[in-house]
Amino acid sequence: xxxxxxxxxxxxxxxxxxxxxxxxxxxxxxxxxxxxxxxxxxxxxxxxxxxxxxxxxxxxxxxxxxxxxxxxxxxxxxxxxxxxxxxxxxxxxxxxxxxxxxxxxxxxxxxxxxxxxxxxxxxxxxxxxxxxxxxxxxxxxxxxxxxxxxxxxxxxxxxxxxxxxxxxxxxxxxxxxxxxxxxxxxxxxxxxxxxxxxxxxxxxxxxxxxxxxxxxxxxxxxxxxxxxxxxxxxxxxxxxxxxxxxxxxxxxxxxxxxxxxxxxxxxxxxxxxxxxxxxxxxxxxxxxxxxxxxxxxxxxxxxxxxxxxxxxxxxxxxxxxxxxxxxxxxxxxxxxxxxxxxxxxxxxxxxxxxxxxxxxxxxxxxxxxxxxxxxxxxxxxxxxxxxxxxxxxxxxxxxxxxxxxxxxxxxxxxxxxxxxxxxxxxxxxxxxxxxxxxxxxxxxxxxxxxxxxxxxxxxxxxxxxxxxxxxxxxxxxxxxxxxxxxxxxxxxxxxxxxxxxxxxxxxxx
Length: 509
Known about the structure:
The chain has helices at residues 5-21, 34-38, 40-43, 67-80, 84-109, 112-124, 129-133, 138-154, 161-172, 181-191, 200-221, 242-263, 284-302, 308-321, 344-355, 360-379, 384-394, 399-411, 415-428, 433-445, 449-460, 468-479, 483-494, 497-508. It has 509 residues and is mainly α. It has one domain (5-379). The chain is globular and about 80 Å long.
């Protein structure tokens, strides 16, 4: 049986992704994946499956509503069990399918060669390792995955309105950044010179799906419908003035997003406070960032007729970047390589279009380089020890990275190095509640109970308290045989008096 070109490329996608990311199937729940474990009792309960559409994506104050992503986590637990392998496997499969649909989309839009090379570049791009290897990156994968299905449906001679509305809703309900798909769809229609009349009804259906998503989002998030609340650690740009935010955002656009997307080097899992310093005035990096941003905007118009793949690629890059840029509005994080997942599709399209003919050998060499870097980088995500050691090297000024590395030393019983890292973290920012709690653990181990309790209480007094400190205070109470004190704290942690009473009685035995 002769395989079609589409099927051959699909097989290529799976082979490439399995070669680069197959190792992650043996990886653990690491970093932000831990929250999936915390929600396991809820996510793994088939009787509560329907509730995934009625809750926020983790903490309500984060202002995130991603029911489809949550639903996939639940199905992972229910169908495959609690092992991390199935979560990683689904990420890999979805990523391979995304490469395939990129091929299908750009093949219909431009040519088979552009689709082929765009798909390969995308699958091998090193900056995507965080999205594929870190389970919570699935939100990014799903948002682009369903957006591609939406674009492909738009290009059909006879558009299925039900599918069109479904795809855009699923994209938005996977991650909010899919909102840019509407603007990109408009660019697609204009480039292809489709009759606008043909798209009036599809446009109404797409807008209708958007408002249905907004309706559910409002019901679930309420006051956080359009607002967020996060810490200085996650995004210091939320706490500075407009000029500082804009200038720092353009600095990040160049030094983190553009450079690392193109070069694939110096990748890092953490950019939180104070790894990226907020700037007060225009510097070289922010100036270059502004120039590159304006350059891509100009490309949209300059090559509209002669090289439309550059116009569409530039549109995807710019439109995809803006919602995560902190330029329009502050978001929940200052920077993250995962945020370049959607925008990077535009870069892949431009590279594929420019290199597909005369510079084909160079393109192949770039792909080999990207594949090697991605394979090595994916290995860093297999365990928390690896990713936290890696983060401490690439983000030595981050309170989060230093505190996480301290936690690794603590769990290994190396209290000396643990204390060293916790103190460095505390010097960087002394109001990171989990870091304060971690430092308290060191004093507890060293027998300085009063200092430990002081730090645990400080961790609870934060605007974003670390609730594990309740348990630590309860355990200190048990250790000192102050059972009334222990019960008070343990009740605040477990919120189950019967369980706490049994817990205390077992301790007494």
